[in-house]
UniProtKB/TrEMBL annotation:
Organism: Methanimicrococcus blatticola
Lineage of producing organism: Archaea, Methanobacteriati, Methanobacteriota, Stenosarchaea group, Methanomicrobia
Protein name (database record): UPF0271 protein
GO molecular function: hydrolase activity; metal ion binding; RNA endonuclease activity
Keywords linked to the UniProt accession: Hydrolase, Metal-binding, Nuclease
GO annotation, cellular component aspect: preribosome, small subunit precursor
């Protein structure tokens, strides 16, 4: 069974699709609940089964070591380090079933380097993308770009190929 390690953003943003009962966080996260909404979400999550576990120092040390190599350590708060340490602890226990939920790029970077699976808080939906290409007005062949058809020499005109609707990224 998957276990999700929750960054403070999970409660600050409030649109995380993961059930509270599948989440674990660290005590320091509570200090970052500055808004009433965030504090309420945090309390509600605890009531719904969110686990709050203390950070184990040995894992913090391992995270610091990794972060120091990339200079990300300057960007990481004590809470960031703690959340990473908790994620690393779970990774040792359950491998890829340990998923760190965070939107922080420095945290994501370190997590990836430590081999921890990362998931963004909000599953952003990328809007439809229009793909343009060129079509020859003479022979109707399609090309990526250019002004003149390399086959028949007729002019190329811009043509909308398709709309690409990307699905949100899932684990
Ligand atoms: Zn042509």
């Amino acid at each position: 069974m998957k276990k999700y390690i929750a960054d403070s953003a999970v409660f600050i943003m409030g649109n995380c699709p993961v059930a509270a009962a599948d989440m674990v966080t660290i005590p320091q996260v509570e200090d970052e609940m500055k808004s009433e909404d965030a504090a309420l979400r945090y309390d509600l999550s605890k009531a719904e089964g969110l686990m709050v576990e203390a950070v184990v120092d040995t894992f913090t040390d391992a995270v610091k070591e990794q972060a120091a190599q990339t200079r990300d350590i300057e960007k990481l708060s004590r809470t960031d380090l703690g959340v990473l340490a908790k994620a690393l602890e779970y990774k040792e226990k359950i491998g890829d079933d340990a998923v760190l939920i965070t939107d922080d790029f420095a945290v994501q970077n370190i997590a990836t380097r430590l081999g921890i699976v990362v998931m963004p808080v909000a599953q952003r939906v990328i809007k439809d993308q229009i793909v343009w290409q060129k079509q020859c007005i003479g022979c109707f062949r399609h090309f990526k770009d250019g002004e003149e058809c390399p086959v028949c020499g007729s002019p190329l005109r811009k043509k909308m190929k398709k709309k690409v609707s990307q699905k949100p990224k899932t684990i």
